Amino acid sequence: MDILTLLQQRLLSASHQIPTGSAWGFSLVGLGLYALVALPWGWRGGLLRWEPVRSPAAIVSNGAIALVFPALVEEILFRVLPLPLPGSAIDPLRFWGWILGSLLVFIAAHPLNALIIFPDRKNTFFDPTFLTLAGLLGILCTAAYVQSGSLWPPVVLHWILVMVWLLLLGGAGRMGFVPPPAP
């Protein structure tokens, strides 16, 4: 099987797999565990601060954009395409190697984005707290994908967490999406 056929098969399988109730439950528990770790870590590291976005237009536009990028695009690029289909007959060590490699590339993609595409976001994309939380997000989304075999739980998790950061915890201001609040 050539590589394009393999990637197409992975994408079609993951996008057509309807998540079960237990897959959504697993994702919800993972979301709670992520919050228990990420909130204190992010506050202590200075990445998170209470800064809600109040503009309805900014909320809608950030929500629509974040659903496509980063949530959908990054989950396809860093989970669905590189990882063998969950349940594939593959050596467990090799499967874990793909998971680790994909996770490292996911983390490294953020500072690379700052160097190549968004130089004004270097302070965020090189921040050790941001990279740690991005790594934890990658672990959560990988677990949701492997457990469900579906693209949709990791996309929803990724989108929810990005939206909470952007709209409530200072992310939109850090990323330059909205003007910083008045002092």
From TrEMBL:
Membrane spanning residue stretches: 23-43, 55-73, 93-118, 125-145, 151-169
GO biological process: CAAX-box protein maturation
Membrane among keywords: yes
CAAX prenyl protease 2/Lysostaphin resistance protein A-like domain residues: 60-161
One annotated GO molecular function: endopeptidase activity
Keyword Ligase among record annotations: no
Keywords, sorted A to Z: Membrane, Transmembrane, Transmembrane helix
Protein name in the entry: CAAX prenyl protease 2/Lysostaphin resistance protein A-like domain-containing protein
